[in-house]
Amino acid sequence: MIRRFLGIWNLILLAALIILFLSVIYPMASIFLASFTSPETNQFSLENYQKIFHLPFYLRCLRNSLWVSTLAMILSLIIGIPFGFFVSRFHFPGKSVIKTLGTLPLILPTFIGAEAWILLLGRNGWFTQLLNAVGVRLPSIYGWKGIVLVFTLQFFPYVFLMVSAAMTTIDKSLEESARNLGANPFRVFRTVTLPVMMPAIVAGALIVFYLSIENFGVPVLIGEGFKVLAVQAYNEFISELGGNPSMAGALSMVLVMITLLVALTQKYWVERKSYAMSSLRPPDIIRLKPFPTFCIWLFCVSVVFLSLFPFFVVIVSSVTKSRGPVMYFGQFSLKNLASAFQIAPRPILNSFFLATTATLIGVVFGLGVSYLVVRRKGPVTYLLDMLIILPLIIAGTVLGIALAATYNKGMIVLTGTWMILVLAYFIRKVPYSIKTTSSVLQQIDVSVEEASINLGVPPVRSFLKVIVPVMLPGIAAGAIMMWVTTLAELSSTIVLYYGPWSTMTVQIFQYVGSGDFGLASAYGTILIVSVLIPLFFLQRFLGKELTSAL
Amino acid sequence: MEVRLQGITKRFGSLVAIDKTSLSIEGGEFFTLLGPSGCGKTTLLRVVAGFTRPDFGKIFFGNENINRLPPHKRETGMVFQNYALFPQMDVFDNVAYGLRARRVPHEELQSRVNEILDKVQLKELAHRFPSQLSGGQQQRVALARALVICPRVLLMDEPLSNLDAKLRISMRQEIRKIQKELGITTLYVTHDQEEAMSISDRIAILNLGKVQQVGTPSEIYFHPKNRFVAEFTGTSNLLEVAVLGYDPDQQLVHTDFKGNSMLIRYPQRPLQNHLLLLLRPEWIKIARDRQDNPVNLFSGIVLSSTFVGSMVKYQIKAFGDQLLILEVQDPQDYEMKREGESLFFRFDADRPVVIASREDL
User: Fold this and answer.
1) Within the 84-113 window of chain B, which residues sit less than 8 Å (CB to CB) from chain A?
2) Shortest CB distance from A455 goes to which of B53, B68, B97?
3) Contact A469 B88 (CB under 8 A)
């Protein structure tokens, strides 16, 4: 019986490893090999990499990617650090609402942000026209400026969340003892507070950098001629379609190397530098004089307003009369929403179906993997724990290319089916599920399970009867995060979808590309609402902040 | 239910947690595994519960070998150190859990749960959740949950270690009372020697995965078999003395300790030239002066004295550089000494326990 019990978990372990092998390792290995073959002769060659590092065009892509990501990272720090510091250390009116709204940009799809800024500041943008009328010409939103603007406004919450979390774990006594030893407040901040927060700041910066460099939707929509790696890999893949994805593979590998470097820095520098502190008394929240309070309040409100205003614009646009790229703001119309719902509801249903399927698989898989990683420590589960990070460091476009290229021939043919979309979504988003479930599982002592077994309930049934119910809120939080982020997934979808399996995100992408902003906004609005409703439930009924699943 | 362990060995990597341990626990007995942390006592308990599989050795409940029986079929009731109550269930459901797993009919389940809750005085709290209970109450729920299934053996893993000192004493009396009423074979793990002595019928002292001694609390206290048991079961003064001669008429051993002559009563002529003597602090008396009794009378200097009302405890230096601990119950005037003062002490010839174990010398 004990043998059989061990057998069940070993079987699950084996299944998890096979799934990871088929969905990540094997596809990545095959485009890795493809990147070392010549597109003409199909022989081993380094010519793809020679091209990347010698042709000015490819070099520019690489430089562009690094440029926008670095800039977005720096700007996110400039906004995120004070924002995090203010909300965790000072009193000001409406703080909790500001804090909650401040995290929303994380969840809202970035390419909708890009669409909104085009609506506002693009060639036919509302602001642009308004200012043109009085003779003011704004600098173009297209190109790197627009990309950096959208990245900064959507990714700064990572920095702010990291900083404010670190701020509240510093024990009050730390700063007090520095004061007691004779340091003035500024010196305390510089020599105690800041160094203790440094790992959190670096971690936030790395996340922003990673998300920026792997992003596909924003540069493709607002970048126009400004090409970055993720977009160029996609372009190469489309032009190589059917052939060996050698150039797309090589570009993907360059992108993987960069993201891998980011992940390794995170793992070996940030985690080593982090100070484990059990904060018994978090620092006091300071009440400032009215004017400084007002300044802090104004800063935070402006940041939140700027980052959420684009989504408001999209919602307004969806009920505004439009003809192609021209929006008639102020003229109400339900035409766009009606055509999205009635004439072409298929993408909406597709998105829901694919996200739900991927989430269900992800929840089961996440539960199994979490149990193995937390409860059955050993060399093989350690390997599993390492492998499960892989999907996190592979850009969506890259994973899409790898899957499409691997499964379009051979024993398993998935390319051109909906299953490949589910596979990509599942593997890309399952870390959410694993993270939330395993962190709850870690808090439940093994003895609770043993108590149940001791009272006569067999092991697997004990797990389902006493552990899973306790984990439910965590599982639900992970599932909701998986579902909403899958719904908003563009980068892998754009590579993998085919005709009838177009999703909302693809529709938005295409309508923005063709300049049909009315319909793009209609789908955008439906997407925004679909994302916000489950988050509201998460917060309201499970009492969980959306940040608990990040 | 009688429990027998035969030659149990368990290794974790290169660490030997249990080393060829054999024990036999009688039906209805309250048996305690006592030892320092890392001695293998919890591992041994988990071997009995089935959560840990021994590398070698056999486990018997009565005449049934249960090595191959999975933990959920062993019918043991375990009380965990952290209680391990199911947080999403109230007290009643926690206690009823094992009965439901056994498909006990509804009426019987109700009455059995209520009966046991009554016994642990929790009837009024049946619909509270674990998070709403105090430590002591959670402890009772854990006990009730383990007892209600009428287990063949009750297993308790340091059940009182998370309670405060006062509650610990009252709970151990209560556990003892319930155990005797139900007559249930109990295997109890603790590192607290006082707890073990006050609650157990018999105690097994474990160290480094090995059983050092098995016996009743008094056997272990008064006749420890080796240095480790002597030191672990209470404060000990251990003196290594040289044998000078033996008087068979009076059964007295003449010994020498650092130039001081000591007389020790011993039934036969010692085989070794050296003996290890154990003197518990309360076996040593303070003498009024040198003339009081010339046998086993010595002097020392008080290094520290701690007065706690009913007793005064001294740390003294005697025989040159030997430290001794003395405890004087109900101290008289002349027995009150301060640091730096000298005092005379003596002990009867039949007081010191000769520790037989050869390897401790």
Assistant:
1) 84-88, 97-98, 101-102
2) B97
3) yes
Does A453 lie at the interface with B, CB-CB under 8 angstroms? yes
A505 in Cβ contact with A490 (< 8 Å): yes
d(C-alpha B349, C-alpha B150), whole Å: 50
Residues 6+ apart with CB under 8 A from B351: B279, B283
Mean pLDDT by 10 residues, chain A (550 residues): 58 88 89 82 80 84 92 94 88 86 85 87 81 80 90 92 82 75 78 82 90 90 87 84 75 89 82 64 79 90 91 86 73 78 83 92 90 84 84 86 82 79 90 85 87 89 88 86 88 86 88 83 89 82 57
Cα angle at A9 between A7 and A14, to 5 degrees? 90
Most A CBs within 10 Å, among B48, B67, B72, to test the A interface: B72
Q: Does A280 touch chain B (CB under 8 A)?
A: no
* Half-sphere exposure in the Cβ direction for A526 (13 Å, CA): 24
3-state secondary structure A189-252: HHHHHHHHHHHHHHHHHHHHHHHHHHCCHHHHHHCCCCCCHHHHHHHHHHHCCCCCCHHHHHHH
Helix (H, G, I), strand (E, B) or coil at B155: strand
ipTM for this model: 0.79
The answer for residues whose C-beta is within 8 angstroms of residue A493's C-beta and 6 or more apart is: A400, A421, A424, A503, A505, A506
From CA A513, how far away is CA A509, in angstroms rounded?
Answer: 6
CB contact under 8 A, B71 and A462: no
Q: What is the pLDDT of residue A550?
A: 52
In this structure, what token pair is assigned to residue A349?
A: 């249903």
Question: What CA–CA distance (Å, rounded) separates B344 from A354?
Answer: 90
Residues of A in contact with B82 (CB under 8 A): 445, 447
Q: Which of A238, A218, A246, A54 is nearest to A152 (CA)?
A: A218
Task: Give the chain B residue nearest A446 (alpha carbons).
Answer: B84
SS3 at position B234: coil
Chain A: closest CA distance from residue B75 (Å): 7
Alpha-helix runs per DSSP H in A444-516: 446-454, 459-462, 468-487, 491-496, 504-513
Of residues A217, A100, A256, A268, the one with CA closest to residue A509: A217
Report the distance separating Cα A457 and Cα A463, nearest Å.
9
Contact B120, B154 (CB under 8 A): no
Does B162 contact A at CB distance below 8 Å?
no
Identify the sign of the CA torsion B134, B112, B90, A447: positive
Contact between B70 and A1 using a beta-carbon 8 Å cutoff:
yes
Element (H, E) at B59: strand B56-61
As a whole number of angstroms, the distance between CA A539 and CA A102 comes to: 15
Burial class (CB within 10 angstroms; exposed 0-12, middle 13-18, buried 19+) of B63: exposed
How would residue B26 be classed by pLDDT, with cut points 50, 70 and 90?
A: very high
Distance from C-alpha of A81 to C-alpha of A76, rounded to nearest angstrom: 8
Q: Are A156 and A80 in contact (CB under 8 A)?
A: yes
Q: Which amino acid is it at A72?
A: A
Say if pTM beats, i.e. exceeds, 0.95.
no
